[in-house]
Amino acid sequence: MTTNAQEFARARGAMPGGVNSPVRAFGSVHETPRFFVSASGPYVTDVEGHEYVDLVGSWGPAILGHAHPAVVKAVQDAAAHGLGFGASTPGETELAELIAARVSRDGEAKPVERVRLVSTGTEATMTAIRLARGATGRDLIVKFAGHYHGHSDGLLAEAGSGVATLAMPGSAGVPAPIAAQTLVIAYNDLDAVREVFAARGDDIAAVIVEAAPANMGIVPPADGFNAALADIAHAHGALLILDEVLTGFRVGPAGWYGIDPVAFSPDLITFGKVVGGGLPLAALGGSAALMDLLAPLGPVYQAGTLSGNPLAVAAGRTTLDHLDDAAYARIDGAATTIADAAASALSDAGVTHVVQRSGNLFSIQFAAEAPTDYDTVKAQEAFRYPPFFRAMLAQGVSLPPSVFEAWFVSAAHDGTAVSRIVEALPAAARAAAEA
Ligand code: PMP
Q1: Per-residue pLDDT tens for 237-254?
Q2: Fewer CB within 10 A of the terminal residue: the chain, N end or C end?
Q3: Residues 6 or more apart from 347 whose CB is under 8 A from it?
Q4: Three-state DSSP state, 352
Q5: How many angstroms separate the alpha carbon of residue 27 from the centre of ligand 1?
Q6: Residue 137 and residue 186: Cα distance in Å, rounded?
Q7: pLDDT higher than 90, residue 163
Q8: Rounded to an integer, what distance in angstroms lies between the CA atom of residue 234 and that of residue 192?
Q9: Which residue of the set 148, 257, 328, 374 is catalytic?
Q10: Cβ of 244 below 6 Å from ligand 1
């Protein structure tokens, strides 16, 4: 048997930082990353044989719990029929129809008439942006500071010095002229949105927004924010790209679109994570008029060798099929219990905190007032999270290894799993207090 430390040392000799995605290196929590060998329901098991109650959920996809028997069987059945054909399959159409049918809201026209399947959320948002540019003949994109939409060049951009100032590269390797096609503004700030459109409205192709931001911890949209955003964008002939890669089919059957307190009309919606049921699959959708601008019908090019892979389609379809009202009720109930227990443990330990929620997604923030944007999120006492995280891990609970990530509950988090989390919280809260 090897140890996590031995695995990490070996991995660092083979892969940059020992990982294939940076957050897995546990850098911000100062802890040896766990190397997992199996997972079932709400539990994951590492190479040392330690079992943890998991609140990462593969960063979202494991909404039914890990290795859900029906999903595993669907993937096995699909594999037995061929791993992929590089050609169309009936299952792709069924998944596209399922997505279009689910994303609905009483009294509103369905925003998704056509769907394109891709393999990652990054591809979904990248394609949505190309489509918005192709449709409008404009180049500029507006995004919000602290929102994550994947790692395509133009979306790794950081705010310039003023609201309507073109952005700077957010990573080495991003050419400044590409970052300069993005305008980065503060979240939840409609004045900033109005200002940027007043200054550059004729050149803006689209605003891209996380439907309910979860990549700076949870920062809910102010009531009506998404609706106002849609109105402002549309008044200037720009599109609204609603990024539901994280929230889609997680916070409810129709994603955040279905539960936002104020109805609104996004032009393009991106999906990922849950829609692939744990395998690499993501999607974008919108009206037929817009989506049919994609190749082969239209002039906007997009393609993918593994797009609509039959194993991924089988996992996604089966996952959506099992996400009924009862499943969402279980997820919402467990999320409430855990979020409330975290808040009271932190209160008992005298730790200044807020627990912010967007549906069944939540995270803790070490701040006296609920952060509303990236600046206020960054101002929290983030140093309290590493000891909190490590104390939970030592007690067998695997939290996201960063304070800027949401906690992901699944439908498999039953009473036993939730109790193990709740019992671990007081010691973790005391560790946070002593930081
Ligand atoms: N958009 C959002 C809102 C996300 O949370 C993520 C991933 N965390 C992405 C896009 C990118 O998805 P992927 O990692 O599959 O490329």
Answers
A1: 999 999 999 999 999 999
A2: N
A3: 353
A4: coil
A5: 20
A6: 26
A7: no
A8: 16
A9: 148
A10: no
Domains of the chain: 4-63+325-434 (3.90.1150.10), 72-322 (3.40.640.10)
Exposed/middle/buried for residue 223 (C-beta within 10 Å: 0-12, 13-18, 19+): exposed
Question: Quick check: pTM over 0.95?
Answer: yes
Q: What is the mean pLDDT of residues 132-156?
A: 97
Kindly tell me the number of DSSP H helices and DSSP E strands found in the chain.
14, 15
Residue 71 exposure: Cα atoms within 13 Å on the Cβ side:
26
Shortest-distance Cα residue to atom 13 of ligand 1: 121
CA angle, 321 then 329 then 56, to 5° = 80
Question: E strands within 214-267?
Answer: 239-244
Residue 172 confidence (pLDDT) above 90 = yes
Of the candidates 263, 258, 265, the one whose C-alpha atom is nearest the C-alpha of residue 104 is 258
Rounded distance between C-alpha atoms, residue 325 and residue 266, angstroms: 24
Phi-psi region of 224 (alpha: psi -120 to 50; beta: other; left: phi over 0): left
Q: Is 148 a catalytic residue?
A: yes
Q: What is the pLDDT of residues 67-119, one digit of tens each?
A: 999 999 999 999 999 999 999 999 999 999 999 999 999 999 999 999 999 99
Q: Which residues, in sequence order, are CB contacts of 190 under 8 Å at separation 6+?
A: 225, 228, 229, 232
Nearest CA to ligand 1 atom 1: 149
